[in-house]
Structure formats: structure tokens, C-alpha cells
Amino acid sequence: MKDYLNTIVRIGRIVISPELRGLGLTRRIIKAAKNFSAERWHIGGMRPIFMEISAEMLSHIDFVTSSGFKFIGRTEGNITRVLKDMQSMARDPSGDFGMMSLQRKYFRALEDYCKTLQISFEEGLEALKRKIELNQDALTTGEWAVLRSVIRNPIPYFLCPLDDYTATYMRAALKSRPKAETATTNQFEFSARSTQINIDALSIRAAYRVPETRSTKIIMDAFGLKGDTVYADIVQNVSVKASNGNIIFVVGTSGSGKSVFLNALDPEKTLDGNLTVKRAGSLTHSAGWLRPLRDDIPIFEALAEKFTPEKAFVALSRVGLSEALAFIKPFWMLSRGQQYRAMIAELLLRDEEVWLLDEFCSDLDPITAKIVAHNLRKQVIATGRIAFIAAANHTHYLDALRPTKVLMLRSGDEPAWLSYKEYQNEFLDQVG
Description:
Low-confidence stretches: none
Shape: elongated
Strand content: 15-25%
Number of strands: 13
Structural class: alpha/beta
Strand order of the largest sheet: 9-10-11-7-12-13
Number of helices: 15
Helix content: 25-40%
CATH class of the largest domain: Alpha Beta
């Protein structure tokens, strides 16, 4: 068996910068590794014919199947033998028990734990036994922190063929054996129900009754103004049609009515009493807005408490926020780009069919805004949401968002509907 050990090349770890996750870079790195292994890698003249990867994260998020890997099974771990090994080493620390370097490492960790708590080694073994026989919830925080480094649970093992012959061999082998369990138990689809928005002649008018004060009388006399009420047509005669997977980008200068327009699309919103909304057609959808997460607990816990840990894992991974340190940070400790991703993950976990995003990416640098826009677009299409996104400053990420339609609001004039390409060509070129 040792003669063929080098026919399998292993991916030890894939690390993507947290700010660049969600762009498909993992697939590109794996593809490059496969090409290099197939064409150039060898040990003693032996070329690898398979690539393997195993990782605990694959129990929660499958990030390798799309790159051609097949789930083979789970590693053995050490659960069935570690307790026996620790007992044997306690009786005869100088004995030979096979994988000595690892076993001694576990033994020292357990010894240090017992010394710190001033308990006997037998009591430490009892805690280890509880973790194995019950679950980690049966342990104190201190026991869990130490014993997690002693126990290796079985983890998913994936294999990928590197040439046509081994691909044929693997297909036949997998077909002939009983269907294995799936590697990832978290199979969730965050799809929305079929939704159509059909609104005609949406108009929003503001009215303000001018108070009769000395100051206002001076202005009215000076400029010859008459009447006691000021009117402003904020949005004029907008007809909106949208369906699942559509991204409607709302643009316009400051004061053109972008925010008011979004508010008018939310059935649960009560508009300011000075605003009058007229439209033909009813709002039958539910609407969700980006909102900050709780900032007194880790973001993973905040989402897991509301939606289950399994769903939180998947949602955070979908938006490119699958970095361990980000999971255990509170919302306020995240970068602004990570905060956007966390808020989009929460939108995914909620049930609203329509997403309303105001001042989208207005406080992000150009590169991060582009990444966030790319991820948002991907999730809107994948889950069948309808997204209305408003922003004044957007030229740096518009090509990543690629909206279905652009609604251009113009103060004092009727709006214009444009395709993404029309808006890009006619208006952004003029700015450039």
C-alpha cells in the first residue's frame, strides 16, 4: 500500500482573505491545484492520479463538490480508541502505542488539564469519557476547551480524479457500492414564494401647511407668495412591474424621492402624515430591509438563536462570510463589508419576498462594494427574491450588480425606465 501513497495528492487547507470571499476564488484555486498536480507534480517520478481533501467544515458547508470532488465517506477519527490509549499510556508512559507523537500530545493536554484543576488523572479520564459517550453539552466550559483538542471526530473525506481513466474508475466504483450518507447535513434552500409586483401610476405628493409666524409672513410678502400650503410632487406616475429574480435599481439625485419610493413599496410602512400616496394595484408581498444584527453576542449566535445553527452556517457561507473569527465576533467588531454580508445573510433567513435596500453600499470602498453587490445579485437570483435597491453613489459597483431594470427618478419630472446597458451607456459614459 505504501508504494502507491504518492498517487494521491492532498489539499491541506484553502485560505481566502475574508474580504474576498464569495467571489468563487475557492473554485479557481482548486482548479489551479488540480491542473498543477496533473501536469507537473510528481514524487520520485510518480504522478498523482487523485486529489483528496478532508475538513470538519465540510460537515456544514460543501465547498468542493462543484470542483469535481466526490464524497467517499468519513475518516475514522479517534473516538473509538482515544480513551483506551490514554488509559494505557497512564499505566505505562514509556510504552509503544503506535502513533506516539499524536497520542503523547493528547496525553500531555489531558495531564495539563488535570493539573490546572487539581484533579486526578482518573477524574480527567472520566470527563473525557463523558464527552465521548454523551455530547459536548454535558461538559463544563473548561472541560470542553481542553478535551476538544484530544478528541478527533470523524470528518468528511472527498476524492477527485485527475485524469479520464481515474474519473471512469471512480464513477464505476461509486455506482457499484451502496449509496453513502451525505457529507453535509445542512441542505437548505432559501427560496421565496412566487411573487409578482404590478403597480400602476404610483404618485407621492408632499404637503406642508405653512405656519402663520412673523418670519413666514415676511418671506411671503417679500416674494409675493399666496396660499397657506406648500406642495411638492416627489414621485410622479411610476408604473412598476417585477417578478422573482428581478433587481430594480433606483437612481436619482439627492431629493429625487428614492427613499420615499422604497417606503411606498413596503405594505407595513406608515408614511409621514404629510405624504399622500396614490396608486393602482395592491401590495400583496412582504418586504424586508437590511438591518443591523444584535451587537452584544457573536453574529453566528445571533442568527443561530433565531433560525437554528444549521441554517445560520449555510446563510453566512452563501454571502461569503464563512471565516471562523467573523463567526465569533459581535456585529460591531466586523468590518463594514462584513456587516453588509451579515445583514444580507439575515435577509436570506427571513421569509420576505421583496428586499428593499436604501443607500446601498454608500459607506463602502469601491472594491468591497463591488464584492457585496456581486454577492447580493447572486442571492437574489438564486432565491427568487425581488430587490429594489436605491443609491446615489453607485458607479463603482453597478457592473457587479447588473440590475434587471434601472428606474431613474427626476425631481419635478416624470421618471424614466432604462435597461442596465442603456443607463450605463447613456448616463455613466457622460459622467466619465
